[in-house]
Amino acid sequence: MKFLVCISKTPDTTTKISFSEGDTKFSEDGVQFIINPYDEWYALVRALELKESLGGSVTVVNVGPAANDAVIRKALAIGADDAVRIDAEPQDAFQVAELIANYAGDQAYDMILTGKETIDYNGAMVGAIIAEKMNLPFISLASKLDMEGSTAVLEREIQGGKEVVACDLPLVVSAQKGMAEQRIPNMRGIMQARTKPLNVVAGEAAAKTSVAKYQLPAEKGAVKLIDADNPAELWDLLRNDAKVI
Amino acid sequence: MSVLVFAESFNGAFKKSTFEVVSYAKRVADAQGDALTAVAFNVSDAEAAELGKYGASNVLNVSNDALSGFDSGIYAAAVAQAAQQAGAATVVVSNTPNGKAFAPRVAVKLNAGIVSGVSEVPTGNTVRKPVFSGKAYADFTFNTEHKVIAIQPNSIGIQEFGGSASVEAFSPSLDGIRGVTVREVKSAGGGVPLPEAELVVSAGRGLKGPENWGMIEELADLLGAATACSRPVADTHWRPHHEHVGQTGVAIRPNLYIAVGISGAIQHLAGVNQSKVIVVINKDPEAPFFKAADYGIVGDAFEVVPKLIDAFKASAN
User: Fold this and answer.
1) Is the residue at A176 inside a domain?
2) Mean pLDDT throughout A84-110?
3) Does residue A245 form part of some domain?
């Protein structure tokens, strides 16, 4: 099977977020970047597991400038066979998805995977847009993915539970917790990643939204401490003050 | 132009998140001076008319077996055709699991910009949503005439407008779309499903072992809350993975989040920082979680939680 895994470069989870140019730009100063965890831990690792049992290849694709190559090499170190970087500045989900769909259009991938969302813009949109652009079925928020012959069987989140769905290839999947376990690249993988192909392709697509301004949340007021010996006060405050119970 | 809202239903009935998104869309429509049309699938006309209370003036009611199981492509085709039927430039959906799957496809069909996870009513052409896992907000503007807005459930609340809606049958063309086959639907069963729970009681390593979760479950039962846990607790299999809230688990936004014996690492906060009220119980007064909390109790969970249970029972009587 031929897999394409879409990976996004995001700030490390523990990054302190700040903005520049009058709160119109995310400030990258001193920020450590990683592969978006949902893309890496779940989508990429499950594609590798399926390739290992069924044969085939795993390609990772990223939209971004040459500065993204370090993060892309990490995906190769984890086990992807090759990588494609679409050389464009990512602007919104629509533009990123359109670039990937345009690239993937004539590549005959059996399955395209993304993480359920990125941890920077939390949009959860790229997979669905790729699917619509390529006229493919899309299964979102999948926590299990197995193959029965040429049919993919997935468990996906729904409101109030889960459902099991089956779908013939090709298709697009967004992955979340449960699908696989994080893999730490070993030294051999890191060495091999240096010589694996990382192909740079050109692409053009327009964004349909822009960020006008960022804002940090209002400072949280000081915590109101309640005496451990007077627990009734908590219920009183939650009922009459916060009005949440 | 008008505004179209998708009214999601489950076994022929609407959920709270549906009434919330309809009342949100009504405010969007009012701000634009437009009428609000809703589209619903496989509900009775009487159920469809309920949406009038929350601001819809017309409901396009679609009856089609192709929509009885969920497929993102088929749902998107039906909603996009309803938008054309209603002459809508703005489509509003709830950012539920199904909404996330089909709303971006609607945007492609309508050549619309889309912003998902919106947490406030738009002002002009601008919509606000939390970004960086709740560590900041971003105001998005649309570069397109058509817009799709997916609002985060439990962020705006339900508003009743006391109107009534006319209901008309609508038959979109849904043939020839290759979709998925739904084999089985598993409801969460028992308890309250975590992602949409309004009250959540959560515990971490401070509880020392899975055998000590009885008091957490008892407290949750008393409140009608869902139970949750921190990542180390799920990773050591003290609790099931689906209870893990945080950066790589479930992100929740309940009205009340009670955290017992959780220190409040930044990865955990990323999953709960949209909670309206946070209560932290921890024996370490320096636990970082207290900085993100509204109410705190410094004390040993094994002493404090039983006292809280007793006090709740006493206050409820």
Assistant:
1) yes
2) 97
3) no
CB–CB of B242/B255 below 8 Å?
no
pLDDT over 90 at B242, yes or no: no
For residue A229, which residues of chain B lie inside 8 Å, CB to CB?
A: 307
Domain of residue B146, CATH code: 3.40.50.620
Would you list the DSSP string of A72-130?
Answer: HHHHHHHT-SEEEEE-S----HHHHHHHHHHHHTTT--SEEEEES--TTT----HHHHH
Of A138, A162, A166, the CB nearest to B72: A138
The arithmetic mean of pLDDT across residues B161-168, rounded, is 95
In a domain, A26, yes or no: yes
- Would the pLDDT of B192 be above 80? no
Interface test with B, best of A157, A171, A215, A219 (most B CBs within 10 A): A157
The residue in chain A having the minimum alpha-carbon distance to the alpha carbon of residue B291 is A223
Cross-chain Cβ contact A128/B100 below 8 Å: yes
- State mean pLDDT over B207-225: 96
Q: Which one of A13, A124, A235 has the shortest CB-CB distance to B270?
A: A13
A57 vs A212: CA distance, rounded Å: 41
The ipTM assigned to this model is: 0.95
Question: In the block, which residue shows the tokens 């705190």?
Answer: B296
Q: Which residues of A touch B10 (CB under 8 A)?
A: 159-160
The answer to whether A119 contacts B267, with C-beta atoms less than 8 Å apart, is no
Report pLDDT digits (tens) over B19-51: 999 999 999 999 999 999 999 999 999 999 999
Q: How many domains does chain B have?
A: 2
B73 vs A14: CB contact, 8 Å cut-off?
no
Q: What is the CATH number of the domain that holds B215?
A: 3.40.50.1220
